[in-house]
């Protein structure tokens, strides 16, 4: 079959740049699978409604369900299965690159991102994530390094310490404190004395490192202004499954809380101005849970992503000069739901598997079996398993055992510990006529590199321009 | 998270029935997976272009890619994983029913289909498939039985021999002759003497049972009029992988050929009239190939489905009073594409696995190993495997062995021999303003039962009315 006549690598039928939003919100559910929404929706129907596997009824729609509009192709410049660095670079810059590379082409030359271009054109910018802020996806929008694991270099670029264009991110909320502390700090990951928190303060950043400092951003309202750097864990923020169980006064901010705070801060800084804001929000840890085949951690991070989408769509209804696009960078885990799968098996599971494995490893008491049954298995929804299963579960890698056991019970299958090559679903939302135009523009399938090109036109930006500037200062 | 405020079970944001097409084409790729398009697109890029796994480049778009617009939920009234009967009933009638049931609710009462309602309102109707015409999906649009395996009863209803509303299908093209022949015919599957081909002729049907009679429909043009019954195999039509290798003069009609012929016949019968046609086309055997984990048969039936979509979209551009919706009834096989998957391993594979297994079983010569290597493995793209692999391949279920071996080589993973519960992609197309309105109406996620409800409004039909008529005559 000849396909040469078929649209190749372009946004099908789109009149590019026909919308002109003042503000753009880009949400990346890292690793979200086609099956993820089916799991979350069905779980809610059974946990909160009277749906059962033998009488499912009509499912409630997730906030993101109604926003589906097409698909994206996710392969990278050097692999049919991308990693988050190459996929992030594609979504941020409109260029394919190799797995592991951030903001550079295969030849090592930098390419500018939609966030950097927005900043250059007078927009305010934000990154809100649950991974370290220097992790692949946020890094793809704000740094240029050969190796995604150069977290320290990435942090330096993100805060404007060593970025060719200086400071380009006005709000950063997430995890990853350790890359910002000098090696004199006990929790630092750095090998040098560079103090990026200190540098940030010198540059006028409000720096938050815990719940109360985070709350102050909202409480202080007009008092606390951009730029803002809020990092609430040395590494990743907790899985939502674990975070929601933390004591309230020390509980880490959730992705939806950080989203609201960032929206308010960016809105306060721009609502009287011509230029608005560009914000990238990443539900970072859906991916991590899928790598670990942890169905419960996956579920709760998918639900939290949907809470973010609900907040953003309500925000857009109140601020109709704003448009949102959401798309996963790739699928993780190769999740499928064969006959017999049953989301009710996830009801009662409170925590992530690795958190429980850690608690078990730390236990020094006398009755390991009782502790394992009551404090480890029960909180993972496995309070009713047999003694022989208990023995198997607590030998070897406890976290992996719990995850595989719960997945097997729920009939959720994973085909890989890595990513897969399937297309990801594209979601978009704007209010009124802009919303209708967005559907007409974005319906269909797109290479992942086409998304920032569409935003470039819609936002009146120039990615080539920022690429040239980066290369002049490289 | 509360979801009660979120749209439940309705077409999100749709102003129902805002399009008013004269003709509607509904295409069901049975069992099409989210991964199916990724496989087909990438195969084409590598078989026909210079794409490789380590340098994939920008992929060509499949004809269906550009038409993605949302998703559908596929669960049935009694299972999270539907079968084709319940899913077909949902798509045809707007009602959930139990697995295995066709055109009836769980209480045994019939519900009318969009095809039956169209017929009642003066539209011409068509069913074009590659399975037996009495198989679940076409049967859901044209019959009402408790058990999808009652193929003989279904055939009787479809031809108007025993349907409560008499004859409702004007064009039927596909397989399944055996249910139409009386038990006096050597290839009959009937246990009675009912001759449905004879009955069809009495009712004025043009009956075609082979390639030359099929060709006559086109050659005869205006001479051969509706109704038309063309069945070209006793059971399923061949997989496209096998059909394309048949001798030209006896080659079964392909799904795309039957589509063109049906479109022309329906167009000739309606183009001077107020009312147009409703046609359901099913790429039936994507599903069968996935049940068998036969990656090559799957690939070629997915490519043929895309050829049908290409023909239909071109037809619509020339006949802009026509709208198309396409959606899979469910996913089959739980297909995923983990890192390392390589579609180049499918290049050179000509046939389906079961056809080759049949040829091997029929071989009566002396050199079984040579025959197996040259006539079985080579045409399945496995000409280069080791002697020990050869020994393994030819022991036990040869067809299954070949399929699993090729899938493993290509790195294509299947998680089940049955269906899975993931959402399926919704595709739609119309030209010009109707096309834009269709995108606005259908963007988002929908329960599968919402699709015929949307068509009911768009076509000005009344599903309740036909249901009442059916019940009066039940």
Distance between the ends of chain A:
46 Å
| Oligomerization state | homodimer
CATH-wise, what's the superfamily of the largest domain in chain A? Alkaline Phosphatase, subunit A
Q: What does the overall shape of chain A look like?
A: globular
Radius of gyration of chain A: 22 Å
Tell me the number of structural domains of chain A.
2
Largest interface: A-B, 76 and 76 residues
CATH class of the largest domain in chain A: Alpha Beta
CATH domain topology of the largest domain in chain A: Alkaline Phosphatase, subunit A
Low-confidence stretches of chain A: 1-16
How many individual β-strands of chain A?
14
Q: What fraction of residues of chain A sit in β-strands?
A: 5-15%
| CATH architecture heading of the largest domain in chain A | 3-Layer(aba) Sandwich
Helix segment tally of chain A: 18
Write down the overall mean pLDDT of chain A.
95
Strand order, main sheet of chain A: write it out.
Answer: 5-6-4-3-7-1-8-13-2-14
Biggest β-sheet strands, sense, barrel of chain A = 10 strands, mixed
Q: How is this structure best described in words?
A:
Two copies of one chain form a homodimer. In chain A, helix 7 links the parallel strand 5 and strand 6. Helix content of chain A is 39%, strand content 14%. Chain A has 474 residues and is α/β, with parallel strands linked by helices. Chain A is globular and about 65 Å long. Chain A has two domains: 370 residues, 3-Layer(aba) Sandwich (Alkaline Phosphatase, subunit A); 64 residues, no CATH class. Chain A has a ten-stranded mixed sheet, sandwiched between helices. In chain A, strands 9-12 form a two-stranded antiparallel ribbon. A two-stranded antiparallel sheet of chain A has the order 10-11. Chain A has 18 helices and 14 strands. Chains A and B meet through helix 1, strand 2, helix 11, strand 10 and strand 12 of A and helix 1, strand 2, helix 11, strand 10 and strand 12 of B.
């Amino acid at each position: 079959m000849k396909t040469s006549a078929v649209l190749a690598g372009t946004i099908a039928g789109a009149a590019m740049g026909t919308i002109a939003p003042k503000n753009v919100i880009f949400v990346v559910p890292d690793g979200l699978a086609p099956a993820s929404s089916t799991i979350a929706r069905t779980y809610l129907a059974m946990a909160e409604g009277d749906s059962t596997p033998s009488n499912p009824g009509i499912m409630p729609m997730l906030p993101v369900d109604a926003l589906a509009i097409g698909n994206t192709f996710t392969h990278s410049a050097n692999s049919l299965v991308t990693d988050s660095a190459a996929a992030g670079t594609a979504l941020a810059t409109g260029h394919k690159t190799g797995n592991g590379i951030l903001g550079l082409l295969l030849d090592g030359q930098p390419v500018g991102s939609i966030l950097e271009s927005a900043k250059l054109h007078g927009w305010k910018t934000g990154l809100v994530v649950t991974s370290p802020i220097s992790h692949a996806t946020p890094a793809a929008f704000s740094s240029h390094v050969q190796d995604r694991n150069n977290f320290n270099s990435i942090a330096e670029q993100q805060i404007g310490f060593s970025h060719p264009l200086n400071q380009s991110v006005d709000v950063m909320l997430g995890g990853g404190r350790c890359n910002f502390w000098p090696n004199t700090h006990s929790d630092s990951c750095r090998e040098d004395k560079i103090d990026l928190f200190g540098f940030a303060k010198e540059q006028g950043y409000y720096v938050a490192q815990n719940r109360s400092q985070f709350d102050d951003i909202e409480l202080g309202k007009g008092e606390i202004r951009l730029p803002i750097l809020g990092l609430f864990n040395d590494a990743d923020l907790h899985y939502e499954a674990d975070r929601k169980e933390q004591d309230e006064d020390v509980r880490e901010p959730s992705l939806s809380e950080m989203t609201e705070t960032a929206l308010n801060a960016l809105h306060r800084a721009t609502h009287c101005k011509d230029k608005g804001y560009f914000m990238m929000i990443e539900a970072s840890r859906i991916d991590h849970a899928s790598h670990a085949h942890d169905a419960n951690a996956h579920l709760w991070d998918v639900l939290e992503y949907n809470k973010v989408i609900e907040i953003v769509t309500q925000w857009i209804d109140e601020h109709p000069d704003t448009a949102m696009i959401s798309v996963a960078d790739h699928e993780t885990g190769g999740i499928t739901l064969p006959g017999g799968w049953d989301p009710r098996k996830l009801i009662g599971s409170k925590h992530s598997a690795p958190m429980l494995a850690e608690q078990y490893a730390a236990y020094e008491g006398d009755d390991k079996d009782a502790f394992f049954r009551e404090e480890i298995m029960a909180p993972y929804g496995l309070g009713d398993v047999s003694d022989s299963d208990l023995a198997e579960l607590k030998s070897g890698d406890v976290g992996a055992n719990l995850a595989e056991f719960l997945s097997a019970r729920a009939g959720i299958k994973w085909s890989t510990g890595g990513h897969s090559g399937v297309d990801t679903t594209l979601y978009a939302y704007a209010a009124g006529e802009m919303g209708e135009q967005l559907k007409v523009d974005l319906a269909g399938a797109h290479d992942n590199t086409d998304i920032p090109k569409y935003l470039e036109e819609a936002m009146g930006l120039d990615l080539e321009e920022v690429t040239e500037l980066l290369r002049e200062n490289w």
